[in-house]
Amino acid sequence: MQSALDPHGERADALAVLFWIFTAVLGLVWLVTMAGLFFALTRRRDSRGEPAQARPAVKRPMRIAFAAMLTSTVIILSGLAVLSFDGQRAVYGDGAGAAITISVIGHQWWWQVRYEGNNGFETANEIRIPVGSAVDIKLTTADVIHSFWIPSLAGKLDLIPGKSNELHIQADKPGVYRGQCAEFCGQQHAHMAIFVEALEPSEFERWRAKQAAPARTMAHLAKQSVVASAASSPFAALSERSR
């Protein structure tokens, strides 16, 4: 199973960094909050259990503490918002200069993959890309809402009826990366997986040329079948022995 915390692409890296920053900052906020709560519960506690005496006014240090907490809250939330917007641009930003454009059409419950350009071709439930090259994925749907997600390569993006979205991916090293429809789309939603295989550029070009080549004709296949049948015939074996 792939994980967004095991990135293998530039855009996935940006998403993972954003996650760890949020985790560290919010974890620190939680620790400070728990420390303040512990201090408030234990400070000047009366051992006899009697009610604390009401104070007529809040002292100056307390007012300063409240102001500091309010200011730090605004600063932290503003900083996280800015980081979130920057991270969104890094993950879903412009894909200008992409080496390959691939259209992915979501169906219940499979993926139609179309390689655009001259000598284009189609596959299903599998995408092959060259290592180190930017790839532009154009997302549409033929029926309901789906969500395209390859955790180790990029963030997820919805496929919405009547709308075309774009996602940009890049793999840093060869391998097979599993993806999944991340939006419930019917009874077989859990089985709507897709696999991205990153190949070395030379290997990818060989595969692409083979896929784009014209399909063999039925006459050619029939001729091959006749030759194979003749070779496996017992009469052919007897003829070979008689020689």
Write the layout of secondary structure elements.
Layout: H1 10-42, H2 60-92, E1 100-107, E2 110-115, E3 121-124, E4 126-130, E5 135-141, E6 146-149, E7 157-159, E8 165-169, E9 175-181, E10 193-199, H3 201-212, H4 218-231, H5 234-242
Parallel strand pairs: 1-5, 4-10
Antiparallel strand pairs: 1-2, 2-3, 5-8, 6-7, 6-9, 9-10
Helix pairs in contact: 1-2
In short:
The protein is α+β, with helices and mostly antiparallel strands.
Q: What is the CATH superfamily classification?
A: Cupredoxins -  blue copper proteins
The profile of the biggest β sheet is: 5 strands, mixed
What proportion of the residues form beta strands (DSSP E)?
A: 15-25%
Q: Give the uncertain stretches in residue-range form.
A: 235-239
**Strand line-up in the sheet with most strands:** 3-2-1-5-8
What CATH architecture label applies?
Sandwich
Sequence of secondary-structure elements: HHEEEEEEEEEEHHH
Per the principal axes of the C-alpha atoms, what is the gross shape? elongated
Structural class by helix and strand composition: alpha+beta
Q: Kindly, what is the distance between the CA atoms of the first and last residues, rounded to a whole number of angstroms?
A: 59 Å
**Total helical segments:** 5
CATH class: Mainly Beta
CATH-assigned fold name: Immunoglobulin-like
Fraction of residues in helix? 40-55%
How many structurally independent domains?
1
